[in-house]
């Protein structure tokens, strides 16, 4: 019998794949040696002796852990009414601040 459900087939629930096991081992080694690669990157990036090119590269690498990467989207919409766009500026702790801008867009023909 091929395909379909088979009892006790596949990886047991909760078990780690190879990459997860490797990450866990690396994390354990870092913890055991009081080693934090992010701390080293931040210290290097804030050191005035570090060349600007290197500091910018570090900032770009660290930024991906602080803000999501934006994806391009394509919208093909036909509508007769208006569209409301809410632009909200998030402050500390991702709580919307008082700086809020509401924009009303009319239909495409005027």
The low-confidence parts are 97-102, 104-110
Order of helices and strands: HHHEE
Look at the structure and give the mean pLDDT: 77
Query: What amount of the residues lies in strands?
Result: 15-25%
* Amount of helix: 25-40%
Strand order of the largest sheet: 1-2
How many H/I helical runs? 3
- Over all CA atoms, what is the radius of gyration? 24 Å
Distance between the termini: 64 Å
Set down the secondary structure blueprint.
Layout: H1 18-32, H2 37-46, H3 52-66, E1 83-90, E2 96-105
Antiparallel strand pairs: 1-2
Helix pairs in contact: 2-3
Question: Care to describe what's here?
Answer:
This protein is α+β, with helices and mostly antiparallel strands. The protein has a domain at 18-66. It has helices spanning 18-32, 37-46, 52-66, and strands at 83-90, 96-105. It has a two-stranded antiparallel sheet with strand order 1-2. Strand 1 (83-90) and strand 2 form a beta hairpin. Helix 2 (37-46) crosses helix 3. The longest helix has 15 residues, at 18-32. The radius of gyration is 24 Å and the shape is flat. The termini are far apart.
């Amino acid at each position: 019998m091929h395909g379909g459900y088979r009892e006790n087939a596949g990886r047991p629930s909760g078990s780690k794949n190879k990459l997860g096991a490797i990450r866990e081992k690396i994390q354990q080694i870092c913890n055991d040696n009081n080693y934090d690669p992010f701390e080293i990157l931040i210290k290097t990036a804030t050191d005035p002796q570090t060349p600007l090119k290197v500091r910018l590269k570090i900032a770009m690498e660290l930024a991906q852990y602080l803000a999501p990467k934006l994806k391009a989207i394509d919208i093909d919409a036909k509508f007769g009414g208006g569209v409301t766009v809410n632009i909200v500026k998030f402050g500390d702790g991702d709580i919307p601040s008082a700086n809020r801008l509401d924009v009303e867009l009319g239909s495409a023909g005027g």
